[in-house]
Amino acid sequence: MEPADIVRVEAPTVEHHREPVGIGESRPRLSWRTVTGQPGWMQGGYEIEVVGRDRTVDSRTPVCSAGPDGTPVPSDAVDHVLHRTGRMPGGQSVLVPWPGAPLRSRDRVDVRVRVWGSADETPSAWSAATTVETGLLERADWKACPITPDWNDPAGPLPVAMLRRDFTLHSPAVSARLYATAYGVYEMELNGEPVGDHVLAPGWTSYHHRLRYQTYNVTALLRPGRNTIGALLGEGWYTGRLGFGGGVRNRYGTRRALLAQLEVRHLDGSTTFVGTDRQWRTAEGPLLRSELYDGETYDARLERPGWSLPGHDLAGWQRVQDLPLPTAELVAPTGPPVRRTEIVRPVEVLRTPAGRTVLDFGCNLVGRLRVRVSGPAGHTVTLRHAEVLENGEPAYRPLRQAAATDRYTLRGGSETYEPRFTFHGFRYAEIEGWPGPLDPADIEAVVLHTDMRRTGWFSCSAPLVTRLHDNVVRGMRGNFLDIPTDCPQRDERLGWTGDIQVFGPTASFLYDCSGMLTGWLRDLAAEQFARPDRVPPLVVPEALPPGFGVGEMYAVWGDVAVLLPWTLYTRFGDKELLRAQYPSMTAWVDKVATLAEQGGGLWRQDFQFGDWLDPAAPADEPGSSRTDGDLVANAYLVRSADVLADVADLLGKRQDADAYRMLADRVRDSFCAEFATANGRLSSDTQTAYALAVRFALLPDVRRKESTGRRLAEIVRASGFRIATGFAGTPLICDALCDIGEPDLAYRMLLERGCPSWLYPVTMGATTVWERWDSILPDGTINPGEMTSFNHYALGAVADWMHRTVAGLAAAAPGWRRIRIAPIPGAGLTWARAAHETPYGRAEADWRLDGGTLTVTALIPPNTRAQVHLPDGQPPFYVGPGRHEFTLLHSPMP
């Protein structure tokens, strides 16, 4: 806690970047947080200063100065103020427009901020500076060309290609940047040292439209004289097998390729450029195969020691071919890369009934193994991965056609091995062929995911509920691996739009996923507008088997074009995201509106995914829902039209806003006529149907609404508080029960342990959220369905309700400028708490029930206000920044 008289500004952040190096914005917006112990502190003004340095590499002579001894000082050390705003009035501190002239490619500037309180005449001290560096903003900046190995096998997996080139530097490097991307996945080395810590770079984008590149500061890896740059190039998502049902190879092209350029600036102002071209050489090495689904085969006897060092013997190295510059847009990342984020060690060594040796890592995770092994040359160790055990044996059937197997052949001696270009979803690892006694300390799991900043936490007095929330977090980490995937283990791992649409509110509380999902939405729009029907594909990037879902439109999934940008706006306050996605949003709603008009006012279609994975659906028919697919589709059309009207208002498009509100009203009327009786009963008498009606305000008539609420409560009671919803209903059911004044029923559902329920998987040992409510049956066997994953986040969308209602912490205005503290203590719980790192600082809500006394505490960050709703029937009231405590008499729910 800061002293009460201190106001401190943290270093500003830039757009949604965690590390603003190599960014793609010429006018990046700035955000900052103020830390102070002054209660009620509100910002009244701010000042931004931009200090320039020379560009990292430029053909112009850089500005230099002399040090005290007359020695030239690198221009990186010469600062000059480019822009200072002076005092700007107001409390704006999130995504503030860039104050100066646009940045150019390779520019480096330092940015700092100071603030005034609303009643202050004296500003705070300046914040620490944030260094902002642009990447290559213009296509003309790319002077290199892609290079590809002169060998290819379109029918099968390819060895990982080794690529290298020697070059000479005439003097020390003052500044050096490596810009790199690939058709496939790559890792770079300079003089035998790895470049960066990214995993599976450049990641997976819609390669035909957008190809992401990375920027690395490699100044410290260079030396005067001879140097060597090298790369490993794997298949990844580009040419590797992709998709279920056997998948497809070469979906995006038949040739892997590397595009890289090293730009070096020297003290005398000269520059050295080394780009991919025909002077590079390529060879095969120890990585005989490295595939996302099937795993890696590595023969250490084939290693080429010193391959990325000067002086390496080039015997057996071949020439490369060059390719034209990609037609796709070359884009800088909008979010962080995939990294190694955690090491997990085995908790137990198991000997299975069949005699297998299996390591249990204690939780379902996503990553790969790192082994330290000693043995004779030519001996092979095999590592197989599984999420669960069945009858004491690793369960490989749910992997379908993903082998998830890594094989390592020793060169002889003491060796360490970690796969390069694959990942697995697993808790259990079968170890076959280990030479000598197995010491579990020699094997560890390396966790991989997009390196987002954690922003949200929750816990409560019910240990199983807290474990459920932990499972949601772990499942999100595993499935946010460059794109938001459905699952991380079987032959799929695709960016299903419906999954992230329902999970977006939970995801954006738990982690700062704004940058990652902003980039993914740009891919969605690119894929959408490349299709003749302008409909978002079911997965982004588009990678489904040929013909799958073609010519059809699916509610819930397609609605991601509208609802995910809206979610990100409400959580991060980025109106420009809405502006950028607006054409995508309107294209989707306009297309569905046309179909509804052709259908006499309602969208009608032979098949909808609808309430996908209704727990009553047969194992082999996951789309067989008790809720009419047309009912779900038209409910979502109303919701998307309502949201789009609000977006149009925000963007100043009044005519559009009126048109979309009228559309929503027309479809509501048609919905009532088609799916609801005069007494509010729905044609699908299900939890999902009534939850949709309540949450999307589908029945405006008060009498109908009351009747619908009563019927929802009756259905929930009749179900014994078991869940009866799939993808469409699960995110809504608890909120709907609270909306009708029945929060006790929502708590009863949350705390239910029987199958199906949220806690049933927890009681069965789950450490992530399952794809099906009964992925493991009560007798311990695995659901017989062909589609059974033990790490799917969609049904964990209930965590959003837990944050907002159980703990009582929510955003009340876009970007958390206003906060809502509104806990609803529930039956059986004696305390709950949540915390969230908002753009303004940390917010907390905490309540504790001691007998008949309820104590609610709240932490409100500077420069915000909170609306407090206490469960005492009194009107809400507002409080300012600081820590607050409220005590009242409270009767717990029965």
Tags for this model:
894 residues, Immunoglobulin-like, 10-stranded mixed beta sheet, 21% helix, alpha+beta, 29% strand, Jelly Rolls, globular, 7-stranded antiparallel beta sheet
Structure notes:
The protein is an alpha+beta fold and 894 residues long. Among the domains are: 7-134, Immunoglobulin-like (Sandwich), CATH 2.60.40.10; 142-331, Jelly Rolls (Sandwich); 338-450, Jelly Rolls (Sandwich); 682-752, no CATH class; 818-889, Maltose phosphorylase, domain 3, CATH 2.60.420.10. It contains 14 helices and 48 strands. The strands form twelve sheets. Strands 24, 25, 28, 29, 30, 31, 34, 35, 36 and 37 form a ten-stranded mixed β-sheet that branches. The longest helix has 24 residues, at 575-598.
Which percent range describes the beta-strand content?
A: 25-35%
Task: Provide mean pLDDT, rounded.
Answer: 94
> What separation lies between the terminal Cα atoms?
39 Å
Rg over alpha carbons = 29 Å
Shape: globular
Could you name the CATH homologous superfamily of the domain at 142-331? Galactose-binding domain-like
Quote the CATH topology of the domain at 142-331. Jelly Rolls
Quickly count the helices: 14
> What is the CATH class name of the domain at 142-331?
Mainly Beta
List how many beta strands DSSP finds.
48
The CATH architecture term of the domain at 142-331 is Sandwich
How many strands, what sense, and barrel or not for the largest sheet?
A: 10 strands, mixed
Low-confidence stretches: 58-77
Q: Helix amount, in percent?
A: 10-25%
Helix/strand/pairing class, anyone? alpha+beta
